[in-house]
Amino acid sequence: MKQLKRSRKDRWIFGVCGGLGEYFNIDPVIVRIFAIATGFIGFGVVGYLIAAVIMPEQKEES
C-alpha cells in the first residue's frame, strides 16, 4: 500500500511536491507549477505549509 510522504530525494523546500508527484506517479514539476499557481491565489501557501507539517518524511533508503 502506497503512503503519502514528503520526498527526501526530490525536494526543493520541504519535499511536499516531490512526495505528491511520487504518490500520484506524475512529474513533480507539474505539482510545483500547480502549487505556485495556487500560491498566487492565496490559499496555496497555507496549504503547502500545512502539508509540510502533516506529511511524514520518507525514511532514508539504504
List the helices and strands and how they pair.
Blueprint: H1 16-24, H2 28-41, H3 43-54
Helix pairs in contact: 1-2, 2-3
Structure description:
- The structure is a single chain.
- By secondary structure, this protein is an all-alpha fold.
- It has helices spanning 16-24, 28-41, 43-54.
- It has one domain (1-56).
- The protein contains 3 helices and no strands.
- It is globular.
Shape category: globular
Q: Would you tell me the overall average pLDDT? A: 84
| Helical content class | 55-70%
Give the beta-strand count: 0
Number of structural units classed as domains: 1
Distance between the termini: 20 Å
User: Which band does the percent of strand residues land in?
Assistant: under 5%
* Helix and strand pattern: HHH
Q: Largest sheet, described in full? A: none
Q: Low-confidence runs (pLDDT<50, min 5 residues)?
A: none
Structural class: mainly alpha
What oligomeric state is this? single chain
The radius of gyration over CA amounts to 11 Å
In short, what is this structure?
By secondary structure, the protein is mostly helical.
Task: Record keyword descriptors for this entry.
single chain; 62 residues; mainly alpha; 3 helices; 56% helix
